[in-house]
Amino acid sequence: MHITRLELRQFRNYEQAELRPCEGVTVLYGNNAQGKTALLEAIVLCCTGRSHRTSRDKELIRWGQEAGCVFVQAEKRDGSHEVEMLLSSLRRKTVKVNGSALQRTGELMGHVNGVLFAPEDLRMVKDGPAERRRFIDMELSQIKPSYYYALQHYAHALMQRNKLLRDIALKSSLSDMLEDWDAQLARYGAAIMRERRAFIALISDSAHENHLEISGGQEDLKARYVPSLDAQDEPAQALLKALRVARDVDIRRGTTSVGPHRDDLTLTLSGMDVRVYGSQGQQRTTALSLKLAELDIMRREIGEWPVLMLDDVMSELDPRRRRQLLGRLKGIQTIVTCTDMSDLAEAEIGAAWRIQNGTIVSE
């Protein structure tokens, strides 16, 4: 798969812009805060339906404007795919695929596939479980629309159950209504847990191989799924049982204490928890190995390479890790942002554009 055209109108600091990336390595260079990341953000938006930088769509619209637009055209094995995002400060965004408006955002998944590696991805190693769940959810939603829908249904049921828990504290007779929401959480939560378990098994194997290559075989990286409950039974039954056991506690706290929304992913190097004991270099290499694993798995699932986006990460890597990463780019459309072109001295660059104040200045 490769992106042939990206168009922006009133998006971030761009009034209007068009980019036609090459099939190999395209470099976007320039000083910080000029709009390099915004171009990658626009692509991520068309891959997943959401920005990786904000949950508020109106923040994507250029300051002082009421609407904006992003358009991506991609060529895949089955032909051309066009995705358009119409952003509005007054209403929800409209998503179009091949000119037709979608009724559900989940229908977007799979038309444009991409993997982004940015400095903030270090947070999935260093920060709490929410960052690791986000990593899992973003990847799985792209390759399995059914997972995206399960997440949506689960989030809705969770919100309603939490609201009911708070109401029960004021009116105990409402507690009988918990059964319905527990059943929905168990149904959709079980689907999420099954997919996460299978995905993490795959990503652990692939990340292990990538990390051996990057570290020169010095460290053994493993990823392990840590659900919020001990699922010895079938996941739906196990979750339903756990919700009933935790019911009194949940009513007192006014929130749901078990379920996929509390899952985690542990990352260890030779048995050592990277989050707690890993050095900055080890944590960075772990994040890179996970992203390369994400790339591998997506290719396996969709049958072709997704576009790889590297947002100002070359300067964060030492020369050996940089060479290892550049060696993986053959046959993969890659869009790289940087402030210093010397960071890419060893790369086979197909096209380079300077970004200045929301304008694509030169090739």
Protein model, in words:
The chain is an alpha/beta fold and 363 residues long. 40% of the residues lie in helices and 23% in strands. The protein has ten helices and 15 strands. It has helices at 36-48, 123-126, 129-143, 145-168, 178-215, 235-245, 247-253, 274-277, 280-302, 319-326, and strands spanning 2-11, 14-19, 25-29, 67-76, 79-88, 94-97, 100-101, 114-117, 221-226, 264-269, 272-273, 307-311, 334-338, 349-355, 360-362. The strands form three sheets. A six-stranded antiparallel beta sheet has the order 2-1-4-5-6-7, with helices on one face. Strand 1 (2-11) and strand 2 (14-19) form a beta hairpin. Helix 3 packs across helix 4 and helix 5 packs across helix 6 (235-245). It starts with a strand and ends with a strand. The mean pLDDT is 92.
Order of strands side by side in the largest beta sheet?
Answer: 2-1-4-5-6-7
Structural class label: alpha/beta
Cα separation of the termini: 23 Å
Write down the overall mean pLDDT: 92
Number of helices: 10
Largest sheet: 6 strands, antiparallel
Percentage of residues in strands: 15-25%
Low-confidence stretches: none
Order of helices and strands: EEEHEEEEEHHHHEHHEEHHEHEEE
